Queue: 2 jobs
Job 1
Amino acid sequence: MSSEIRRHRMGEAGPLPRRFHQARWDESVIFDLSTPGARGLLVPEVEREVADAAGNVLETIPEPLRRASPPALPELSQVHVLRHYLRVSQETLGADLNIDVGQGTCTMKHNPKINEQLARLPEISELHPLQDEDTVQGMLEIFYRFEQILKEISGLDRFTFQPGAGSQAIYTNAAIIRAYHATNGQAEQKDEIITTIFSHPSDAACPKVAGFKVITLYPDENGYPDLEALKAAVSDHTAGLMITNPEDTGIFNPRIAEFVRIVHEAGGLCAYDQANANGILGVTRAGDAGFDLCQFNLHKTFATPHGCGGPAAGATGVTAELARFLPVPVVEFDGERYRLDYDRPETIGKIRQFYGVAPAVLKAYAWVMSLGAEGLRQVAEVAVLNNNYLMHKVLQIRGVSAPYAQGKRRVEQVLLNLLSNAVKFTEKGGVTLRAEGASDNAAGAARPVVRLSVTDTGMGIKVEDLATLFQPFRQIDSGLARNHEGTGLGLAICRRLAELLGGEIRAESEWGKGSVFTCIMPLKEPAKS
Ligand SMILES: Cc1ncc(COP(=O)(O)O)c(C=O)c1O
């Protein structure tokens, strides 16, 4: 065993990258495999008595709706269908088979298998979207409840789950913006959508498909969306702003509320692409920043698979004022019964068939329920820490630089994590945060540092538990008893990140009296080795 492999096995160097040989079959599309007359299943002839009792069932279907000829479906035996799809599946590099490297934003996250099992329950998987609503009350309840959750997370008032992808949800936003201006008699005049170059390309492509001209803003010298460029771009023609935040660079626009204000003053609406919401869940809300519309990608932020993993779902949210334009149907609840409301005269119509990818909504709902509000906030903290960690690793590669938001030491997530950790340990008493400039000799020579300390008067940590506090998933093993459980993952990432930035995190604690977490961060980044 090479020392490199040993290091990986010992867990010192992370998971071992695997070599992979893709299976390749000389497999045609299923239509080419068709043999006329072959059948997967032979349906028994109907008994005479049943046929007589039923009469000519074809007559119950109106003539214009009847097929003139059989559908052009491939004809294969069951075993040939099975072999075909097994071979094709072997050619797929799916998330479960992958090599510890995400293939894209949708597959880099954890999609718990328990949610898959829930979605495969016959009560869910055997539903048909054309069933009478009385027979799908449970599923409608899940749609309704998840809508209430997204309202809380986003600060907006109504949601539709009809779009089958983020881009379809963004298109829905564009169509609603168009409908809104048309209702105000401004369809001709309001013909421009403003976006930024680091927003997802869908934020330009979708309004274009919806018939708008698209104005793209370039960033200021620090990589932030350029406020001056926005001021120059708005006019009487501005129909709206459609932007991603944090942008696809990972940079959060700190002047987002000002962007919204300027566009509103020009008579435009603002749509928030929240496909990158993993880092802001429970931290900031589209509604609070003044947005009129938003979308979430359930397959990115809410642990449902996409791409190699399964069908997607985009959730479009709007203010109460714009709810009349949402696609039909929307799910309503009268206190006793759920119903699908199609009677909405100002609707933009249908974006996609039926009312959404039900299993995806169920999985997202299950995920949120398993985490709770506090867990969602922790998701955001860990997501940002992970990003910073990865960013730092990438920047250590020779030749790689991040031209934007340079020198921004993103320590706020470390602070947030230490604070939320302290709050978890402190049912009564208080938590104090102190930040001060200092000089530190730990690295040999005196260097200017910032010292952040979070002091709590909570329950404290036992000496034996302090040793494992910063190890991921060990807090659970140690059975540390407190009101709010944590995994230690956030603390582990925080400490590693601080170390990578040339700093450190220490914890001191006295059982029954509280703890002090101190983070020391040099003011200058360590030189690249
Ligand atoms: C920020 C952002 N917006 C929109 C989309 C489009 O979503 P979808 O791929 O589901 O159409 C993506 C997908 O990568 C995205 O990252």
Job 2
Amino acid sequence: MTTRFWTLGALAILAAIAGAFGAADPALAVQGYSEPGQIGLQRPVTEVARDIHSFYDLVNIIIIAITLFVLGLMLYVMVRFRESKNPVPSKTTHNTLLEVAWTVVPILILVAIAIPSFKLLMLQYTYPKADVTIKAIGNAWFWEHEYPGTTPEDKTFTVTSNMLSDEEVAEKAKATGLPVPRLLSVDNEIVVPVNKVVHMLVTSNDVIHNWTIPSFGSKIDAVPGRLTSTWFRAEEQGIFYGQCSELCGMNHAFMPIAVRVVSQDVYDQWTGALKAGDRKKAKEITDRVALEHAGVKSVADASDKN
Ligand SMILES: [Cu+2]
């Protein structure tokens, strides 16, 4: 009877937790940053990020099941074999069946974790052919992104992103009527085309930083004197944020990364403007797309909404 009670209780808790995982998704943010009160990880927009989420859920369910099973066993033993009810303890030392079971079952659990884990690693480290290659350079404390040209006419250009101060955030939010997340927004966003493979080559000018966009499932150390890399194929347009994820010094918390995912057409206009050295036009393009991504046609329209 006692065993049955604990089994049912454990199952009920597991079901509730599984329900919470499943139910968390629809309420999540439409943009690439975490919302106040959000449960779970940032919404994935790449295959790698989706696989990371499934793997995270799988491992969590296994961890919770093991923890509840062990808790149940301990409580059962404490009650069933307490001194007052069991004055003469058993002298049993070996039980072949039990010993085989507690060796084999953990092996099976590890195999069940290893298979999806290796599949995920394969996906993360098998680079599809690049449509766009960008070099990210970490600096204390801001990011530079270099878009290398492929021919002498195809000019290389660099986008330098600095975090917006609290005053700048307030100013921009007021001017555009759009959400401008604090500690994430930057002056110059980098732009990539939607549904295209982007190779991100990552390095640093000073100390170790880390380039990451959680919604892309990309995270890699930026090491001075070395080139590391990650790749992503964003399946949705919008703005996606990340923060330096390697403790790098005083302003570590203030060097965000902002990636704007746009159509190929807009991407070509933006790169065209920067190759021609017209930073003002490039900025106008990203400002215009920001309004479109927020579902408004113009600044006046955005102000109406507020
Ligand atoms: Cu850093």
